[in-house]
Structures are given as structure tokens and as C-alpha cells.
Amino acid sequence: MNQKLEQLVLLVLVSILKIISIKAGGQQCQAITYHECKNIGYNETDLPNKFNHQDQKDVALVINQFTALIAVGCSVELRFLLCSIYMPLCLTNYFETIQPCREVCERVRVPCEPYYIRYGFLWPDALKCEQYPSSSENSICMDPKKHEVQSKPSSKLLINSRPSSPSSLSSSASVAVAAPSLACCHCNTSLGYRRLHDGESKKKCSLPCYSPYFSDEQSKSMMNQWLAFLSLLCAISCAFVILTFFIDITRFKYPQRPIIFLALCYFFISCGYL
Prior knowledge:
By secondary structure, the protein is mainly alpha-helical. It is built from 10 helices and 9 strands. It has 3 domains: 19-181, Frizzled cysteine-rich domain (Orthogonal Bundle), CATH 1.10.2000; 184-210, no CATH class; 217-273. Strand 4, helix 5 and strand 5 (141-142) form a beta-alpha-beta unit. It has helices at residues 2-24, 56-63, 67-72, 78-86, 102-118, 155-160, 173-182, 212-215, 217-247, 258-273; strands at 30-31, 44-45, 89-91, 94-100, 141-142, 185-186, 194-197, 200-203, 205-206.
């Protein structure tokens, strides 16, 4: 008994020493290799982030959804905001996540949110400014241009105006019109995702997470109602099969008996949806 107790104490001490050594070693920072997040004021990040993105490829799939908005140029700080959220600054001897300041987020949201609203998109939850600390609260946060607002003053005019020539399409709202409809999350070929647009099939493309199909409240409500109805129907039918089995167990012999196991599995799955 004493020998087992000694082994347990030794195991606990080794675990504590292991944790202390990891903490003493500092954070494992990694160099930023994703091109959109280079030259933004820092060059090292720490992953996985709070969204559980494991590597820079995962982050790239998310930030690529905002490529069209970056190209429109509604705010020169948009790229910094996205990178500071999804690829936060990493300091070797500081273990807390350093977030962007709320002021940066608001300077980006004011000129850029109208593009989302105009074309039926909701402002992403990750970019909602209320969740980020303000520099006036003496919190540690990042603001690259604290005393200078760099957002485009004519962003509203840009939305409502037409380009004066075909060559100016790249800086007009026409880019914003086309971008949401063609935006996609790029996937591995093995997943087999295809997206149809104007009769054309685009390979390795799935709907972006913030598309109106998933963000529209009416669509989400209808989807939840249908899921609840179908799950209830499935649960009732499976329960009926299971009860029939318990009433007369000898009636269900092999090879019919696996149907009972399938019904039991689907019953629990439908309960999960309910």
C-alpha cells in the first residue's frame, strides 16, 4: 500500500514539473506564412486560435471569404483586423491572447458593413466589435493607427454609384455585387464539393459560412422546424419498432433482428436533434 502511495505521489510531482517546464519555456510562436497576413506590423502568431483553427491553412480558408471585401477597399485596416482576430500576435513571454482594439473594429465596421447589408449578408459574429477591449479601458490590445482613421470616407458613394468606365470596375460596387455570389470555401478535392452558379459547376467550392442560406433568420427558423418535425417522426417510428420487439422478442430472429439495432441507433440520433 505504501509503495503504491509513493508511486502516486511521484507521478503527481513529475506531472507538476512537466507543466512548470512547459510554462517556463514560453509560448510556441510560429512565423506567419499566409500572404494576406504578412507585413501587418507583426510576423509571429500562435495557433490554434480561439476558433480552434489548427494551422495557417485553416485560417486562410476563413480569411479568403473576405477577399472580395478587401479588394473593394472599404477600409485599409480590414486586413489587419482579420489577421489580428484569426492569427493573433504571439509574444514569447506573454501567455494571454492579444486582441485588436474595439476602436480598430469600429473603424472597419462603419464603412464595410453596408456592403454586407446591401447584398443580404449579416456582419460576421467574429467581427462584432462589442467583444473586443477598448484602449480607453487600459486593456492590452492592438491598434496600429490609434490617432489616425484610414477608412475610406467615400465608401457610401462607392456603393451607390456606377463606375464611369469598364476599367474602374475593380474599385466600384460591381466587385461587391459579384463577390458574395461567387465566394466559396475552398475544400480538398477528395471531399467532392461542387457549387453551381449560373449553370456552371465550380469544383472544390462550398458555400461560405456567412452566406444568406445560413445567416437569414427566417431560413434558419424554417430549417429548425423541419428538423424538429422529421426528428420527431423518426423517433416515433423507431420507438414503435423497438416496442414491437420487446412485446414479442422471439418474433424477430436473424436476419431480421439487426433492424432492431438500426431502429435503436436512429432513435437516439433523432433524440439528439430534438
